[in-house]
Design a protein that fits this description.
Length: 436
């Protein structure tokens, strides 16, 4: 088992691999979405310059449905449906981060920083889509809530590690050292993916011995027309379309706060990048632990839909409270409460989203469908980052927060009328039984 581990034959390896993949994608996110904006803000960058970097970084995510279709259609089945894409994307991430370390941009080189973020995130998006599809492929229906918790919590854990360490590394050693450290972490994950396999009998590397598993062969779309037909049949159902609005609203929240928090920390509390990095690291670590335990458990226990309504509502309430605390934003304790509270309440919205996405997905086109849903979130991030810059210039940060809270109230109301399908398990079992 240890020398030839497989994800589908072992629950432990299956869940650990999902956790590992989302920790891995959280590390560059922690660097680019948290540490770099903090570094820019403490060195005099404007809201527009930070929003430019966040917005450009979000563009590969917003187009990830294209990645999903490519990953579903083109596979190297003898290595598994998703593992070749995962290994390849990790390798490209390593190369991009090392290149960024040699470029060594300055804190107000926002065009260059945006280009680096775009390049790194292009690879991260392929990894993310392949990881989402892998979760759809190998997760049992009874594990859906736990899997959703690991997906959101794992990413938060990776963000925590990177936000805390990268902020400190940047403060003492510079941005190049942070890029290099992140690249080393990505190389370690790449080595793990070479070691573990999806299903028994598959190749570890292209030149190794092995063959495609019958289940992988059975559920692979035969052509583009078949892939699109299966994906669109599920995607264009009434409630699947309704579900897109709450997803977009969630993205707006991330885009808003990715710009707002560094500005508040630098301009009101007087924090530097190391202080904000430490706060972000602490916040994401706490969020990761809560989401992987309480978040996953409650999603399984209450159901994805009730949990989604609750988490959206709690997030809206938290944002309103932060707006009301504006006179005290210069207080370190209040600043810490905002950073930790926002991170925990936002991250808790993740497990039910992952569970609902998996419920709507057909395993044959899991990468395409899941990536379309999450692309909507990322389109919301791009919209949210620029919308915040605009609203902040019109009415200030506190009023922008009130607008964000109203958006999440709307999202909770839409989820209330949402009806989830109940036939995913039947589809999964039918595919498995046909080739048992």
């Amino acid at each position: 088992m240890i020398s030839n581990p497989t994800m589908t034959d072992s629950k432990g390896f299956r869940l650990f691999t999902i956790l590992m993949l989302y920790v891995a994608q959280g590390i560059p996110i922690g660097l680019i979405d948290f540490a770099i904006p903090a570094w820019m803000a403490t060195n005099g960058a404007t809201a527009f310059e930070i929003a430019y970097v966040i917005g450009l970084a979000g563009m590969p995510w917003a187009m990830k449905f294209i990645n999903g279709a490519i990953i579903d259609r083109y596979t190297f089945l003898s290595m598994g449906r998703r593992r070749a894409w995962l290994i390849g994307s990790q390798f490209v991430m390593v190369a991009a981060l090392i290149a960024a370390a040699f470029i060594d941009p300055a804190p107000r080189d926002y065009v260059l920083l945006g280009a680096i973020a775009f390049a790194v995130y292009t690879a991260v998006v392929f990894q993310d889509v392949a990881a989402d599809a892998l979760a759809v492929d190998i997760s049992l229906s009874s594990e859906r809530g736990i899997t959703g918790g690991l997906m959101s919590g794992g990413q938060a854990l990776g963000i925590a590690i990177a936000a805390a360490l990268a902020g400190t590394i940047i403060f003492f050693f510079g941005i190049s050292a942070a890029f290099l450290a992140c690249g080393i972490c990505m190389a370690a994950v790449c080595a793990y993916l070479v070691w573990v396999r999806e299903r028994s009998g598959e190749r570890r590397l292209p030149w190794s011995e092995g063959e495609a598993h019958p289940i992988s062969v059975a559920i692979k779309p035969t052509d583009w027309l078949n892939l699109l037909k299966v994906a669109l049949r599920r995607l264009l159902r009434k409630h699947s379309i309704i579900w897109l609005l709450p997803l977009f609203c969630r993205g707006i929240g991330y885009g808003f706060m990715a710009v707002a928090i560094p500005l508040i920390a630098a301009n009101y509390a007087g924090w530097n990048e190391a202080q904000l990095g430490s706060a972000n690291g602490t916040a994401n670590l706490i969020a990761a632990l809560i989401v992987m335990t309480v978040g996953g458990y409650l999603t399984s226990r209450l159901g994805a839909k009730p949990m989604q309504i609750c988490t959206f509502s709690v997030y809206a309430a938290a944002i309103i409270s932060f707006a009301l605390l504006e006179p005290s934003w210069s207080t370190p304790l209040i600043m810490m409460i905002i950073v930790v509270g926002q991170t925990i309440t936002y991250t808790l919205t993740g497990p039910p989203i992952a569970a609902i996405n998996m419920t709507f997905c057909d395993p044959r086109t899991g990468a395409t469908q899941f990536s379309i849903y999450m692309a909507v979130v990322n389109q919301g991030i791009v919209f949210g980052s620029f919308a915040f810059a605009l609203l902040e210039s019109w009415g200030g940060i506190a009023n922008a927060f009130i607008a964000l809270a109203l958006i999440f109230v709307l999202a909770a109301g839409v989820v209330f009328v949402l009806r989830l399908p109940d036939d995913r398990e039947h589809v999964q079992e039918s595919a498995a039984e046909a080739f048992a």
